Amino acid sequence: MTTARVLIVEDDPIQAERYAMDLDGFDLRVASAGAEALSVVASFLPDLVVLDVRLPDMNGLDVLRRLRADGIPSSVIIVTSHGSVNMAVEAMQAGANDFLVKPFTAERLLVTVRNILENQRLSRQVQQLTQELGVTTGAVGFFGFTGGSPIMRGVYRTIEAAAPSKATVFITGESGTGKELCAEAIHRASPRAKGPFVAVNCAAIPQDLMESELFGHVKGAFTGATGTRDGAASRAHGGTLFLDEICEMDINLQSKLLRFLQTGTVQKVGGDGPEKVDIRVVCATNRDPLVEVEEGRFREDLYYRLHVIPIQLPPLRERPGDALEIARTLLGRMVKEEEKSFSHFAKDAEVVISAYPWPGNVRQLENCLRNAVVLHDGDELTLAMLPPPLNTFSPKAGAMLAGGVPVAAPATDGGRGIVSDDTTIRPLWQVEKETIERAISLCSGNIPKAAALLEISPSTIYRKKVSWENAEAV
C-alpha cells in the first residue's frame, strides 16, 4: 500500500517540526514559503497540503487558489491563527477541504488528515469500480447545479458552510451563471428548507410598486389597492427571501429595506404598525456592487449589511469540463420535454461545446440546445444541428491562439492513439503517456496549458502522473 504524501507549508520551523511529529508515518515534505510550496507541489504531487495562511512571500489562500486554478487534485487544510466566519467562508470558497484554527491538538490535526485521506481513498475505489463495471456515474451535481470543476466545488463548500447560518448571503456573477439557483441551494441546504422560498426580481417590478411588493399594503392605501395584501417579506416568514438584481432597487426604498433588515419587522403601505417576521435574506446582482456604491446608486450602509457572506459565481468559461456535463444533463431533460429521440452528442459537437467561451453562460448554452432539439431529430445531436455561432466555431484555432503552442497528435486510429506511426499496436496507456509527456514538454512544463491543448482537465494529467509513478514503484 502506498504511503500518503503530505506537504506541510509553514514558515515557523518549530510549528513545522511539530506538525511533522504529529504526522509521523506519512511521506512528508516541508515548505516555508508560498513559492517554494508551489514548486514542491509540481514535483511531489502531494495527496494533502497542510497550508498556513500567513506566509512570508504570499497569502496561503493565494497559494490555494493557484492550486485550484491549475487543476491540482491535492486536498488542502487551511491553518490560521485568525479564525473567523469570513476567513472560513473565503477558504472554503477558494477550494479548501477543511479549516483549522490555532492552537489545535495533535489529535485534531491527525483526525482531520485521516478523514480527508479516507474520503480520497473511498472516492478512488468508487471511480475504479464504476470504470471496471462500465457504469456511467453521471455529472457531479449539487442542489440543482451541475459540474464538478474545482472552482464549482469551492462554491458548493461555501454554500454548505453558509446554509446553517441566518447570515445574509450576497451572490454576484455574470448574467446566466445561476444566481437564483444558488439562492435556492442555500435555502434547500438550510434548516429553513421546509419553509417558503420567495423570490423578488427588483429589476422586473416598477419602482412605485416595489415597496408594496416587498412589504404589502392595506386596503385603500393607494389607487388600485382593493384589498389587504401581504408582501414578499411576510410570505417568506420561516423561510428565505431572495432579492434578485438588488442593485436595481430605487435608492429611496433602500433605506426602508435597511430598516427592515435591522429590526426584522415590516410595515404594510398604509398600515398602522410593524409586524415581526423571521426570514433569511439572500440577494444577488450581475453588477459590481462596490462600483454602484462609489457612484451613489447603492447605499454603503446597506451594502455592508447585506455583504456578510459573499459568493462569487464563476462564468462558464472558467469552469473546465462543466459545459459538456451541463449540456448532457440538459439534453436528457429536453428530449423528454420535447418528445425527441436524441441520446447523445456527436464527437465534434462535444469538442465545440467544451471549447466555446459561452459569453451568455449557462442560459446561452440552454437556449442553443433548446434550438437544436426543437428544430432537429435523430439519435445523435451533431455540430451541424447547433445554431450559429457554434456550428462555425473552430476550437482548434481557438486553442492555438490561446495556448500559443501547437501540439501535433501522433498517427492514430480515429484520434484514439491506438496505432503508432509504424502500425505496431502498443498498449493504449503507453501511447497516452507519451502523448501527454510530449505535450507537457512542448508547453515548457506548463501542465494547465498542455491540458487545454489536449482538451482534458489538468487534474486528469496529475492523476495519471501519480498512477504512472505508483506503477513504476511496484
TrEMBL record:
Keywords annotated in UniProt: Activator, ATP-binding, DNA-binding, Nucleotide-binding, Phosphoprotein, Transcription, Transcription regulation, Two-component regulatory system
A Pfam family the protein falls into: AAA_lid_14
Start and end residues of each Sigma-54 factor interaction domain: 145-374
SMART domains: AAA (SM00382), REC (SM00448)
UniProt GO MF annotations: ATP binding; sequence-specific DNA binding
Gene Ontology terms describing biological process: phosphorelay signal transduction system; regulation of DNA-templated transcription
Gene3D superfamilies: 1.10.8.60, 3.40.50.2300, Homeodomain-like, P-loop containing nucleotide triphosphate hydrolases
Entry keyword annotation includes Signal: no
Matching PROSITE patterns: RESPONSE_REGULATORY (PS50110), SIGMA54_INTERACT_2 (PS00676), SIGMA54_INTERACT_3 (PS00688), SIGMA54_INTERACT_4 (PS50045)
Sequence ranges assigned to domain Response regulatory in this UniProt record: 5-117
4-aspartylphosphate: residues bearing it: 52
Record InterPro entries: AAA+_ATPase, AAA_lid_NorR, CheY-like_superfamily, Homeodomain-like_sf, HTH_Fis, P-loop_NTPase, Sig_transdc_resp-reg_receiver, Sigma_54_int
Protein's recorded name: Two-component system, repressor protein LuxO
